[in-house]
């Protein structure tokens, strides 16, 4: 039961850290294209189809966080071409489910936000998602701090404690 909140916190923490990175660095998207629009629409359709509402039952290894990350990365990779698709999906009364409308509204903020955040999300390797295992060393990763310095988890291996602090705000 604890895994679901931990995974959600990690996803939100990643977005929070990427936002800090964006305040320091700039970045731009790839140009718009019909292929990008199609990819954004397909990512939303898959999320809309596969999403199941939350309930209070224990559900270890809940796949919904993966569905959200996959859709996020795919829509961000579509770049600014995804904006009309997201705007349509976010409208009240659209044919999309409530969860997809909510997702689209949140992702619109990211797409319209700093380029470095979009770049960092677009560069995320989905193949590495969910590779951490209980009782095994955490997979190596690198993240920038607010000052632009990049740190790797491997820099801290062998030390007694590594503390990750995520400031999460749902705005």
Low-confidence stretches: 17-31
- Which percent bin holds the helix content? 40-55%
Q: What proportion strand? A: under 5%
- Biggest sheet: strands side by side, in what order? 1-2
Number of strands: 2
Radius of gyration: 17 Å
**Span between termini:** 25 Å
* Shape, principal axes of CA atoms: globular
Biggest sheet, open or closed, and with what strands and sense? 2 strands, antiparallel
Question: Could you tell me the mean pLDDT?
Answer: 77
Q: Number of helix segments?
A: 6
Class computed from helices, strands and strand pairing = mainly alpha
Order of helices and strands: HHHHHHEE
Please describe what this structure looks like:
- This protein is mainly alpha-helical.
- The protein has a domain at 23-137.
- It contains six helices and two strands.
- Strands 1-2 form a two-stranded antiparallel sheet.
- Helix 1 crosses helix 6 (115-122), helix 2 runs antiparallel to helix 3 and helix 4 packs antiparallel against helix 5.
- The chain is globular, with a radius of gyration of 17 Å.
- The two termini are 25 Å apart.
- Residues 17-31 have low confidence and may be disordered.
SSE inventory with pairings:
Layout: H1 3-24, H2 34-50, H3 64-78, H4 83-90, H5 98-111, H6 115-122, E1 142-144, E2 150-152
Helix pairs in contact: 1-6, 2-3, 2-4, 3-5, 3-6, 4-5
In short:
The chain is mainly α. The chain is built from 6 helices and 2 strands, in the order ααααααββ. It is about 50% helix and about 5% strand.
